[in-house]
Write a structure and sequence with these properties.
two-stranded antiparallel sheet; globular
Length: about 240
């Protein structure tokens, strides 16, 4: 895992990244502390794909068919990314589309396949989705909105959000991610991009624009990881659900 955060500089509807050394976890935030913890941040690209996912409804129970293979896995609707106009619409569409890619990568796989470690560090495809669920909760619900969020990790077990427990099902994790996204979108719908976070780090509050842009790079990075994980599992490759 790579620790640290990359800042994102927004100009209109375009964004670019520049490296800044900060921690997501283990940070001291005014009005609350997350504890000894770091998150993986950043962005990577993904490849092209032709398969179309099955239809689904955001927020529903994502079913598992006979044989234990997941069918449609959808956490949010994909949508056209505006090429002009307010940067807000472009950023939020990019974030939603990357979220959709993460869930789409689970389709057609069994629980054993999505929880199988694919690299030496123990990362699994479903573990990436679980991790992103708590990254969503941290940035939007906790840090920006000041909500009270419970996390699975401790100082002794800092990477628990990447681990799928024996009693956790695919539906459990997909619904966890769906709920986190719904809460994030509820918060962003009621705020302006220039609004500042409730909590702060080292005395600095973060604008919602930075948080949204950062979540694009965070989710896109793990979508790239998911591309590789899926190919290692069953040789399926791809980028975007049509």
């Amino acid at each position: 895992m790579i620790k640290g955060v990359e800042s994102v500089v927004i100009s209109g509807s375009d964004c670019s990244t520049g490296a800044v050394s900060t921690d997501v976890g283990g940070v001291d935030v005014e009005s609350g502390a997350l504890g000894a913890r770091t998150q993986d941040e950043g962005a990577v690209g993904t490849a092209a794909r032709t398969r179309t996912p099955a239809s689904g409804v955001p927020g529903r129970q994502n079913s598992v068919k006979a044989g234990g293979r997941s069918t449609s896995v959808k956490v949010v609707e994909t949508r056209e990314t505006p090429k002009t106009g307010p940067g807000r619409d472009t950023l939020l569409a990019m974030l939603d589309n990357n979220r959709a890619i993460m869930a789409w990568k689970l389709e057609g796989l069994t629980r054993e396949e999505v929880t199988r470690p694919v690299v030496a560090s123990g990362t699994s495809l479903l573990g990436l989705v679980k991790h992103l669920s708590f990254v969503e909760r941290w940035w939007f619900d906790d840090f920006f909105a000041g909500g009270d969020v419970e996390y699975p990790w401790t100082e002794e077990d800092p990477d628990a959000d990447f681990r799928i427990e024996d009693d956790e099902t695919v539906d459990d994790i997909v619904n966890l991610y769906t709920g986190a996204i719904a809460r994030s979108n509820e918060i962003t719908a009621e705020a302006q991009m220039d609004d500042l976070s409730t909590r702060s780090r080292n005395g600095a509050r973060f604008g919602l624009r930075w948080i949204v842009a950062h979540m694009i790079e965070e989710t896109a990075r793990h979508a790239g990881h998911a591309d590789i994980a899926r190919e290692l599992i069953d040789e399926t490759t791809g980028y975007y659900p049509e």
